[in-house]
Write a structure and sequence with these properties.
This protein has about 325 residues and is an alpha/beta fold. Helix content is about 35%, strand content about 25%. The C terminus is likely disordered.
């Protein structure tokens, strides 16, 4: 997949460009229907499938409170590539770009720069200043410039609308099974392992790899989770605690992962953590001994759950499986 991170990087229009546009946060099943449609249409006319997205997410720029993202831009790029898209254009979203009119977006970017031959959009898509670029507008523009517009219907799973908003709710509630059903994969957090208090191994007996959350991160319900951990292309079982570690009076929100059958120094290295199941809420214990006993129980429960995911754990050694 070719990746362009600015419209200025576009040299010439693409051959028979079939284009889709969206924020694609999470790249869930609904988004995947869009990608499948645009790829099929591009193949039918021996053309190029093109996806346009934005970084940062427009709501992070336009709203003071921003938005909590399901996936990082890095993960979104990986998932879009897996969907079979030929070209990804990532437009830097700024307050200046937000002033772009819908007419200019179509005529200058879609028609002149990309050479759009067909446009595929979601049922609720709108763009441009004041969201004036709605479906009816795009259909009129398609008639004017000679490209058909295909509208992909809302996608429902077991009667439930698949949407980024719903997935965020599920993650905040700790419903990892529900989130997986709509995403088509486990919800994943990723980051670089930080040096923490180093209390896990020395005091409690369960060493942890610590990840810190950023302001824009979607933070799951605080508590303990069963996890799959991907480190250096290999998959491991584990348990994760998200919270403030009340037993020791910590004040910083952190994700602490104990990786099973693992004894390597990975400070400063990136890891990915798939959240499989919420086990229990965070709790303040009387001290290190009581906490250690509870973690021991959590580990036993987690290993029993992971026993049913052995095939996934083996596949997780394949980097593409975890994108």
């Amino acid at each position: 997949m070719q990746i362009f991170r600015s419209t200025a990087d576009l040299v010439a229009p693409f051959t028979n460009a079939c284009v889709t546009i969206g924020n694609f946060d999470g790249v869930h099943f609904g988004h995947q229907q869009l990608f499948r449609t645009v790829v099929e249409k591009a193949r039918a006319i021996k053309g190029t499938s093109v996806a346009i997205t934005f970084d940062p997410h427009p709501l992070q720029v336009l709203l003071p409170s921003g938005i909590k993202l399901i996936s990082t831009c890095e993960q979104k790029v990986e998932l879009i590539e897996m969907a079979g898209i030929d070209v990804l254009l990532i437009i830097p979203f700024t307050m200046e770009f937000a002033k772009t009119s819908a007419e200019e977006f179509v005529s200058h970017l879609l028609v002149q720069r990309l050479g759009v031959k067909e446009l595929v959009i979601g049922y609720d898509y709108a763009f441009g200043k004041g969201r004036s670029g709605n479906i009816k507008f795009l259909q009129r523009q398609g008639q004017q410039f000679g490209f058909p517009v295909t509208v992909v219907d809302a996608y429902y799973l077991d009667g439930q609308l698949v949407s980024s908003t719903r997935i965020r709710e599920l993650v905040r509630n700790g419903d990892m099974t529900g989130a997986r059903d709509l995403l088509g994969r486990h919800y994943q957090i990723r980051g670089t392992v930080q040096v923490g208090k180093q209390r896990g191994g020395k005091v409690i007996g369960f060493p942890t790899a610590n990840l810190k959350f950023n302001e824009e991160d979607l933070v799951p319900k605080h508590g303990v989770y069963v996890t799959q951990v991907i480190c250096s292309g290999r998959g491991y079982g584990g348990i994760l605690n998200i919270g403030y570690n009340p037993t020791f009076g910590e004040e910083q929100l952190v994700a602490e992962t104990h990786i099973f059958n693992f004894n390597e120094n990975i400070y400063g290295q990136p890891i990915k953590v798939n959240l499989l199941k919420f086990l229990r809420s965070e709790h303040k214990f009387s001290g290190a001994k009581e906490l250690s006993e509870q973690i021991g129980k959590d580990v036993l429960v987690a290993k029993a759950i992971l026993a049913g995911h052995q095939k996934e754990l083996i596949l997780s050694s394949n980097e593409r499986f975890n994108r």
